[in-house]
Amino acid sequence: MDNIIYQHKDIVQNNNKNIIEILANAGVEFCRALKWKEENNKKREESAFDRGIELLDITIDFACENKKKYIGCIKELCILKEVLCDYFLLDNKYEINKNYIIKYFEDYATSNRLYNERI
């Protein structure tokens, strides 16, 4: 993991990771990718997608390092990554649409917002 050059270095180095916050941020990137996909701007779509996947990979790595706490999340996160890669990079065999992606990540954004309001 140390040989990888991360764009989100601050998150990788943070020992107090908040999975909900990271997934909310990943959702922002995937929503940006959706926007650029609709506008047929492949370069920006790919950049936003890459940032979202990086955040998702960071989340998966963190969950795997803390299996005891996140054992139920690991499979879901890996399936999510597969579905998103299929949607953006392949032929969308899972037949999801942009509203599914938006709704999935909206829940994390809402949870993160509520959590931060309590602090």
Beta fraction of the residues?
under 5%
Amount of helix? over 70%
Calculate Rg over CA atoms: 14 Å
Give start-end ranges of low-pLDDT stretches: none
SS summary, helix count: 5
Q: Based on DSSP secondary structure assignment, what is the total number of beta strands?
A: 0
Main sheet overview: none
The average pLDDT is: 89
Shape: globular
Order of helices and strands: HHHHH
**Global structural class:** mainly alpha
How far apart, in Å, are the first and last alpha carbons?
31 Å
Short description:
By secondary structure, this protein is mainly alpha-helical.
Detailed description of the structure:
This protein has 119 residues and is mainly α. 78% of the residues lie in helices and 0% in strands. It contains 5 helices and no strands. The chain has helices spanning 9-13, 19-38, 42-65, 67-89, 98-118. Helix 3 (42-65) runs antiparallel to helix 4. The longest helix has 24 residues, at 42-65. The termini are far apart. The mean pLDDT is 89.
